[in-house]
Amino acid sequence: MIFGVSMPTRPPLMTPDNIVAILKMAEELGWGYAAIPDHIIEPPEFKGYPYTSTGAMTWGPSGNVIEMLAYLMFAAANTTKLRVMSGIAVLPLRNPLFTAKALATIDILSKGRLTVGCGVGWEHQEFAALGAPPFAERGKVSNEYIRLFKELWMKESPHFEGKYVSFKNMPFLPKPVQKPHPPIWIGGESPAAMKRAIELGDAWFPIGSNRKFPYDTAKRFAAALETFRQYGAEAGRDVKQITLAYCPLWYSEQEAHILENGERRAFTGSFQQVADDRKAFEDLGVQCIIFGLQAPTLEQTLGRMERLTERVLP
């Protein structure tokens, strides 16, 4: 199993030196991924965050967040082995031709170390502020943009006719280093996200704490995988061809989180319990776990990474 780290995009850890220190630690520990979350403009207050039980955001209302594409290039420039990942890019927020060009550039300059994590977004005010396509159509927009990326990255003379973007005989060079294109990981937990991963993705990458679709125990995730396999069979795709990744943003060291049904939330509790969780998810076919490990200080964050590697990864 490969470990990855969800990188800080907000204070207090959001400084160049802190970011580089976390990236270097991940490489030294033999981890595989640095995933960078995506927001551009954030409202001062929002109560619809899908990954907490109350809908409250887990960060402050300042809107102080750095941009993902520029961050990806900085991360690539300060590493040599880690894969850098948009984790997860909110596709409708940016012009898709620009995004395709930027991602191809990052793949080239990182020498083929880019993974493209794709999602549809959850914050309607950000869509409105950026003049993005309608929030209610974000799933259809994202599907079209992914198809567009593949057309631009794979075809000599790209041609595309869609509802949201169209062009003919548009030269698109240079192409990404990775062939046929950088891996596309589909984020999201809903049935629509599962179907998107089956139709368009190389991997499915859910966050386990979605309050509408909770996959925060091995038992719950196993049930979700049954649905995922069913959708794959209906679509005629063998889901064994799709990489399974997973994100426990809530990782807790030595403190067990007890859920409303009395079960312990996965990746909380003792190191032995977390190691057992890692094994249980690995047995379900999960190949990569991207952890949310940010603590109030850099030293605490690096310490969590070291202990997780020493006590859980083996």
Which short descriptors sum up this protein?
314 residues, alpha/beta, TIM Barrel, 2 domains, eight-stranded parallel beta barrel, two-stranded antiparallel sheet, 9 helices, globular
* Discrete helix count: 9
Mean pLDDT across every amino acid position: 95
- The CATH superfamily of the largest domain is Luciferase-like domain
Helix content: 25-40%
Shape: globular
Which structural category do the helix and sheet elements fall into? alpha/beta
Total beta strands: 12
Report on this model:
The chain has helices at residues 16-28, 68-77, 96-109, 124-130, 138-154, 191-200, 218-235, 271-283, 298-311; strands at residues 2-6, 33-36, 83-90, 114-119, 160-161, 166-167, 184-187, 203-205, 243-246, 252-253, 268-269, 286-291. α2 runs parallel beside α3 (96-109), α3 (96-109) packs across α5 and α6 (191-200) packs across α7. The model has no long low-confidence stretch (mean pLDDT 95). β5 (160-161) and β6 form a beta hairpin. With 314 residues, it is α/β, with parallel strands linked by helices. 37% of the residues lie in helices and 15% in strands. The chain is globular. The strands form 3 sheets. Strands 1-2-3-4-7-8-9-12 form an 8-stranded parallel β-barrel, surrounded by 4 helices. Strands 5-6 form a two-stranded antiparallel ribbon. Strands 10-11 form a two-stranded parallel ribbon.
